[in-house]
Design a protein that fits this description.
With 339 residues, the chain is of the alpha+beta class. 40% of the residues lie in helices and 20% in strands. The strands form two sheets. Strands 1-5-6-10-9-8-7 form a seven-stranded mixed β-sheet, with helices on both faces. A three-stranded antiparallel β-sheet has the order 2-4-3. Bound molecules: 3,4-dihydroxyphenylalanine. The site of 3,4-dihydroxyphenylalanine (DAH) has 11 residues, from strand 9 and strand 10.
Length: 339
């Protein structure tokens, strides 16, 4: 029995030292130390030994078990560190290699300008609301005092889904939607896409963006309109920016005005940039027409208000001195990267 035990020890030591994988190691552990293992099998036969032999063999069996356990622990630790070393080697990075350049994106000039405009109006207590781009004839024209065949529709030919559904030509439609759903006081701006069936050139595009503004309350006058727009323009173009209101006609405002800013190039003197006008036309505005208020269930004897519609492309082009509108839509990184 002693020889058997010594044989087990030798064989186990040999097999364990040759073992190079965790699952093989586990198999060896079961083979030698498991319930049905070789050592256990021998211990089971100890009943047949004499009283003198039993403690001697028992001691030897314990020592063999201990040797095997130690060897297993040793191999297991060695295997783990070998594995870790191999993994480390596989994952080494050469920190001296040049890195991959990360290009950080930035906001499109139209988005940047719109964000600024929103901030300015939020600061004055306005809310930002949205309206649908696919709009009914009613909201786009009819409710704005532009019945079918009204000549003012001529400049706003658009894409018809059917006789009564169009791609909106102006964000002014949101004025009506807002007044129908909210009681005064109202202070909103509504930015968004608008569509017209215009051919593409340096200043026209069948898709562009407007920012509508609407204020309705008791005692609102043209002076409020003037002050609001002046503040907007001074924030956008600098504190010395001056605006000018010129009489105009829109069917949904009375009186109506076109709003110009003093040319930043010549400060009103007249130069090629402002076509010798001294001023550059920026937007349309006016006092909301009593008929429009009435149509939305607001009593024009009690409330008054102003509205305006700004072309986002136009103010963006003015700020960055962009001469051709098409550049804003072509997504050429050489162009966009400059802002
Ligand atoms: N809707 C006009 C346009 O597209 C701009 C405009 C003019 C908006 C006067 C207004 C306004 O709210 O009062 O040309």
């Amino acid at each position: 029995m002693k020889e058997q035990l010594e044989k087990i020890r030798q064989l186990a030591e040999k097999e364990l030292s040759e073992c190079s994988a965790a699952d093989v190691l586990e198999n060896l552990r079961v083979k030698y130390l498991g319930k049905k293992g070789e050592l256990t099998a021998i211990l089971k036969q100890m009943g047949g030994l004499s009283a003198e032999e039993r403690p001697v063999v028992g001691q030897l069996a314990n020592s063999v078990r201990q040797t095997i356990e130690e060897k297993i622990a040793e191999r297991s630790a060695a295997l783990k560190s070998e594995l870790a070393a191999a993994k480390l080697k596989m994952e080494t990075i050469d920190v001296t290699l040049p890195g991959k350049k990360q290009t950080v994106g930035k906001l499109h000039p139209l988005t940047a300008t719109l964000n600024e405009v929103k901030e300015i109006f939020l600061g004055m207590g306005f809310e930002v609301v949205e309206g649908p781009e696919v709009e009914t004839d009613h909201y786009c024209f009819e409710a704005l005092n532009m019945p079918k065949h009204h000549p003012a529709r001529d400049t706003q030919d658009t894409f018809y889904i059917n006789d009564n559904v169009v791609l909106r030509t102006q964000t002014s439609s949101v004025q009506i939607r807002t007044m129908e759903n909210k009681k005064p006081p109202i202070r909103i701006i509504s930015p968004g896409r608008v569509y017209r069936s215009d051919a593409v050139d340096a200043t026209h595009s069948p898709l562009f963006h407007q920012i509508e503004g609407l204020v309705i309350d008791k005692g609102i006058t043209m002076a409020d309109l003037n002050g609001t727009l002046e503040l907007l323009m001074q924030r956008l173009y600098g504190e010395d920016c001056k605006i000018r209101l010129r009489p105009h006609h829109f069917p949904y405002t009375e009186p109506s005005a076109e709003v110009d800013i003093m040319c930043f190039n010549c400060h009103g003197e007249g130069c090629p940039m402002c076509k010798n006008e001294g001023y550059i036309e920026l937007l349309g505005a006016g006092m909301v027409h009593p008929k429009v208020l009435e149509g939305c269930g607001i009593d024009p004897e009690v409330y008054s208000g102003f509205a305006f519609g700004i072309g986002l492309e136009r103010i963006t082009m003015g700020r960055y001195e962009i001469k051709d509108m098409r550049l804003l839509y072509e997504n050429d990184m050489r162009f966009l990267g400059q802002f």
